[in-house]
Amino acid sequence: MSESMSRRTLLRLMGGTAAAAIAGPTLSACSSSPATSQQQQNSGVQLPSYIPYQGVKPDLAPTKDGVMSGFLRYPATPIVGIPDRPGTGSEELTAFIQQFRPIPPAASRNEYWRNVNDKLGVTLNLQMVPSANYADKLPTVLSGELPDFTMIVNTPNMPQLLDAKCQNLSEFLAGDAIKDYPMLANLRPEAWRTTAFNGGIYGIPIPRERVGVIWFTRVDIVKAHGLNPAPATFAEFKELAKGVTNPKENRWAFHGAPGVRDLILRMMGAPVGWQEEGGKFTSINELDQTKQAISDTRELVKAGYFHPDTFTQGAPFKDWIGGGRVVMVADNYSAWPQYVTQNVKPGSPVQFDGMLPPKYDASSTPNLGRGVPSFSTTAFKKTDDKERIKLMLRVANYLAAPFGTQEYLINRYGKEGVDYTMVNGDPILTSKGEVEHTAEFYRIADAPWPLYEPGHPEETKKEHAYQVKAVPMTLANPADALYSETYNRKRNTLNKLLDDALADVLQGRKELAAWDDAMDRWRKQGGDQVRKEYEEAFAASK
Amino acid sequence: MNTTARTRTNGRSPAMAPASVPIKILKAIVLLIACGLVVMPFVSVISTSLADQQQITDAGGYVLLPDRPSLSAYSSILAGGVVARALLVSVGIAVVGTVLGLIVTSAMAYSLSRPTSFAHKPILMVVLLTMLFSPGIIPNYLLIKQLGLLNSWWSLILPVLVTGFSVIVLRSFMMGLPPDILESARIDGANDLQIFVRIILPLSKAALAVIGLFFAVGFWNSWFNALLYINDPSKLPLPLVLRTYVVDNARLGAEQLSGEAGVLPPTQSLQMAILVISLIPILLVCPFLQRHFTKGVLVGAVKG
C-alpha cells in the first residue's frame, strides 16, 4: 500500500478497522470460509524443529509434559550463548510493543537500553503503548508503514493482515533452517503453531507455559485455623472457606467470584473452553456443569465468603492476599515471584502455595486449564531484503536467550554494577536498574520461562513441586489450535455479554435463569457462528 | 418606631438579624461537616500516598493519617527522570497550547461576532459542524502523519487549537459587549485590530479566563492524542506516563522483580502519589483565575 493518503484509502479506513481495510482484497478472495481455508493451509505448515537448548543445566529438571525448569541460584558462571553480535552497530530497527509497566527513560538516558543496543549491535527503537490502549493504537500503526517488529495480539482479520503487510518466515525458520537461530529453536512447537497463518510462519511466538492459572492460598492462615490447605472434596473446600472467613478480623476466604466458578468447574472435571465430541463443538458455558458451578458460587457469595469489594473493578487483590485480607485468589503462574518478593520476608509467617482442585463429588476427576502456548506474535515487516530479515531473526534470537546465559542477564537485568549486583548468587536490581529495565525487549522475543525466586530457593522448590502435580492434570482448550474470525472480531462483545450476566447472577440481581437468556443472546450475537467456524476448522485439520 | 423600622434603620432585614448562639453553633457544625466531607478524600489521598504497606493493609486500602509518613512513593515515581521530564512537557504543552488557543479562538470569535464580517455565517456553520461530527481516529492520524507532525509536540496542540465550543461561548460573550463602545472607538479612528486588542480583549478578560481554564485543563489532561502520535518516550506528556502506573498497577510485571522489590512502595501509595502529582499544577492555577472565573459566570446572571 502506498504511503500517501488517497481518497480510496481514506474511505476504506473510515469504513472499518485498519486491519480490515488493509486486508480488503484478500478478505474478499477467501470470504467463503476463511476458517476452513486457514486450517487447510496451516495444517501443512512445516514448523521449526524443536531443539531444546542444552547449554544450561537446571537445578530442578523440566518434564516433557511441561513442568518448567527450576533454578535455585543464577548459574555462577553464566554461559555465553551467542558469541557473535547480531548486528554491525550501524543498523537501526523499530519495534511496536505493548508496555505493561511504567514507561522507561528514553535510550539516551537509559544505560540498560543502550547496553542492550550495544550488545545487539543494533539501535533498537521501541514504540511503547500502554497495554490497556493497545487496541486503540494498533489500527493507526497498521494504517501506515509497519515498524520492523510489530507485536500482534488477537486482532481482527489477522491472516489477511499478515498476508498483506508481514513477512512469511518459513524460508528462514521451517524445519532445520531454525538451527541458525538456536535460541528460537528452544521454543516449543505448540508455541510456533500459533504463528502459522496462510500456509506459512508469520512471526515469532512469545511463549507461555502450560501451568496457567494457579489458586494461590495463604497456607499460613489456613493452618493457623487448624484447617487443611489441600481439601480433598468440595465440602472440605467450603469448610475451609467458612473457617477462615471472619469479617470482624477483616478477613474473607476469596477474591474473584468468576475465578471460584472456574475452580468449581475444574473440580467437576469439566472441559476447558470448548467441548469437542465427534467434531461437534459445545461451549463450556452451555453445559449444565457451568450452571451448577454458578449456582454453587452464588451460594458462597451469599454466605459472605468473598471480600466485600470483590466485584469492584481493579480491586487490589494482590495487596489483599499479601495483607491476609483474603486467603485464596486465582492468578497467573507469573504472579508467584511477585507474591514471594513482596510478602515472604525473614521472620514473616507468610506462606503461599498453589491449591489443586478437590473432587466435586465421588465420580469427578478434577483437572486444570492449560495455559495458552503463546501470548502474542511478533510479526516482521514485509521486505524483499533477505539480509535484513536475517538480521531481525538474529536480534530475536539474542532476545530469546534462556535463563542462565549471559545474554539473559543483559536482556533482563542490564549491566552488572550499574543495573544489578550479584548477591549470594542472585542478580539483584539496583534502584537505577529498577527504573531502567522497564524497557520490555522481551515482548519482541522471549525465552521459555524459568522457575526462579531470587533469594528464595525454597520457594522455587515449592513451585516446582506444585507443577509436578498440577501440569499432568492440565487440559487444553480444543479451540486453542483453531482459528475463528468471528471470535477474533467479536471476542470482547461476546465475553462482556457473559461477564455481565454472570455478575448479575452472582450478586443476586438476577436469578440463575438469566444465564440461559444470556446464552441465547450469545448464540445469536455470534456464538453459533464461532462454533460453526471451529467445527469447520476442526474438520479441515483432520 | 417599631422593631422592623429599627432593623431597617440599621440596614438589616429581619432575615439578616444576628442568629442566636445555638443556631450559630449548629451552622458551624453543619459547615464543618460539609467541609470535612469535601476535604477528607483529599487528606486520604495525600495520606495514602505517604503510607507504607503495613498501614495500608491495616487501614483496608485508604489511610487517614499515616503513622510513619514517607516520601518513597514520590521518590520512586520521580526516579529516573521520566515523570519529571513528562511534567515539564505537559506544562509546556499546556502553556503554549493555552496561549495559542486563546489567541486563535478569541480572534475567530471576534470576527464571527461582527455581523458585517466577511462570510461569517458559512464559517460559523463550519465551526458548528465540528461539534456534530468527528472525523475518526485513523483519518486524523493520517492527516497528522501527512503534515509530518508525528512524534512532534505540535501534534498535541494544533488539532485542538480551535474548538467549536470555545468559539461559540466567546463569540456569544463578545456579541453582548455594548456596540456603542466599538462605534466610538471607530469614530476615534481605531481599526479592527486596535479595537480587538485594546477594547475587546480587555473587556473579555472574564470570558477569556474561563476559556483559558478549559484549554489549560484540556491540554493538561490530554493523553489520547499523545498515545496516537508520540512514540519517543522522552516526548511523552505526564498523563500518558502516569497512566502506565495506574492502569497496570505500577511495577507489577512480576517476572523481573528482584529481592529489592520488597522495599518498593505499595501500589496504593504509588497510585495516590500519581493523583497528587497530576493535580498540583491545576490546583496552583485555579486560585489566580478564580476571580475572573466568578466574574465570567456572573456576567450572564445580571444581564438584562
UniProtKB/TrEMBL annotation, chain A:
Quote the InterPro entries the UniProt record gives: TAT_signal
Superkingdom as given in the UniProt entry: Bacteria
The leader peptide range reads: 1-28
Keywords tagged on the record: Signal
> What is the protein's given name?
Extracellular solute-binding protein
From TrEMBL, chain B:
Q: Which SUPFAM superfamilies match?
A: MetI-like (SSF161098)
Q: Which UniProt keywords apply?
A: Cell membrane, Membrane, Transmembrane, Transmembrane helix, Transport
- Give GO cellular component annotations, separated by semicolons: plasma membrane
Give the source's domain of life in one word. Bacteria
Question: Where mainly found?
Answer: membrane
Query: Subcellular localization, per the record?
Result: Cell membrane
What does the record say about its membrane topology? Multi-pass membrane protein
The UniProt transmembrane annotation reads 75-103, 123-144, 156-174, 195-220, 270-289
Q: Indicate the segments forming the ABC transmembrane type-1 domain, all copies.
A: 87-285
User: Which Gene3D superfamilies does the entry link to?
Assistant: MetI-like (1.10.3720.10)
One Pfam match, given by its short name, reads BPD_transp_1
GO BP: transmembrane transport
Q: Which family does it belong to?
A: Belongs to the binding-protein-dependent transport system permease family.
Q: What is this protein called?
A: Carbohydrate ABC transporter permease
Instruction: Please name the source species.
Output: Kribbella capetownensis
Q: What is the lineage of its organism?
A: Bacteria, Bacillati, Actinomycetota, Actinomycetes, Propionibacteriales
